[in-house]
Amino acid sequence: MKIDEQRMRTVCKRWRDGEINAREAMTQIGLKPNTFYRRVKDMGL
Q: What is the largest CA-CA distance in the chain?
């Protein structure tokens, strides 16, 4: 699945800053938990 990397970075920054929780971040990006955390790791976020 192709994701928008800039969107991923923006949403992850909001998640890391505590503005949104992980579930909300996953919903905004449209990823399931395993995929979300794998992308976070792979992208160094």
A: 27
Phi, psi of 28 (to 5 degrees): -65, -35
Helices (H), the chain: 5-16, 22-29, 33-43
**pLDDT for residue 2:** 76
CB-CB contact of 12 with 40 (8 Å) = yes
pLDDT per residue as tens digits for the range 20-45:
999 999 999 999 999 999 999 999 99
Give the pTM.
0.84
Direct distance between the N- and C-terminal alpha carbons of the chain, in angstroms, rounded to an integer: 18
- d(C-alpha 45, C-alpha 29), whole Å: 14
